[in-house]
Automatic annotation (TrEMBL):
Family from the record: Belongs to the arsenical resistance-3 (ACR3) (TC 2.A.59) family.
This protein's UniProt keywords: Cell membrane, Membrane, Transmembrane, Transmembrane helix, Transport
Main location: membrane
Subcellular location: Cell membrane
PANTHER family, A to Z: ARSENICAL-RESISTANCE PROTEIN 3, ARSENITE EFFLUX TRANSPORTER
Organism superkingdom: Bacteria
Native species: Glaciecola petra
UniProt xrefs under InterPro entries: Arsenical-R_Acr3, BilAc:Na_symport/Acr3, Na+/solute_symporter_sf
Protein's UniProt keywords contain Ribosomal protein: no
Record-given protein name: ACR3 family arsenite efflux transporter
TM stretches of this protein: 7-26, 32-54, 75-102, 114-133, 145-167, 179-196, 217-235, 247-267, 279-302, 308-330
Amino acid sequence: MGLFERYLSVWVGLAIIVGIIAGSIMPDAFTVISTLEFAHVNIVVAVLIWLMIYPMMVQIDFSSIKDVGKKPKGLVLTLVINWLIKPFTMAFLGWLFFKVLFADWVDPQTATEYIAGMILLGVAPCTAMVFVWSQMTKGDANYTLVQVSINDIIMIFAFAPIAGLLLGVTDITVPWDTLLLSVVLYVLVPLVAGALTRKKLDQGADHSKIDTFLAKMKPWSILGLLATVTLLFGFQADTILSKPEAIVLIAIPLLIQTYGIFAIAYYMAKRIKLPHNVAAPACMIGTSNFFELAVAVAISLFGLHSGAALATVVGVLVEVPVMLSLVWFANRTRHWFVNE
């Protein structure tokens, strides 16, 4: 795990601080940036999100899908957690905390936006960081690749319908044109671009070219993430300074969701007797989020200044330390599983 990944929460925390300071002393600059929109998509943020997502998509090897029939139980577990359990538990926890438990502390409109941001996190399964978690738990790298590839294909077709359903259930008006545009812009197009790039670089089955390309792209991906976080918190500076407890309130249900989903997945993996090198990454995929996609869609649907955008960025801040703790737990409980 590289220096950046290991201390991601630190870098994001620093970006948050810079964003809040910049937003409070240069509000006019952030206002100008917020007006640069096309079809409800902020152009500056779209470019930064693409810097994050595109290198991740280049990592996906769709030729690995031919191995989908091998060890099917691990793949089934991931798909069940990602698409049949996780989005719905996230929506429920969002409703429970912000419409019931925290109702006296958050105004109804803001609460609705927080719930929307949580839902978008819940419907976006992890694409990139899961390779790190798999490596740290000594997972089967090829099998992890199969799981991620299948999930990305499903995401093209399932993200918008499930997100739309859950947003509608929580009484949020769903602008379907913007939601579908977001899926095309932030999932389908970078996925196709990544596949074409990988095909071109890997013509001679020389993976070293791909590794070199990804190494060159990594600083840009890091820049995209930190710049996006800085912008988001700059746009939200006034709200955060007046209501700093919002970060804590959002983090509480996100923590419960993450640990709860992992517990369910890990228990199911043990019950169906998966080997640890399949069980651990399968549970990590089901637990972590594709927060880059969630951030982009939240901005497109609800705006840069929205509570939904804030909730998705808090997801970045919460996820990495939590996932590191789950990696530690998975490694400590390796003896619970059959090993291969």
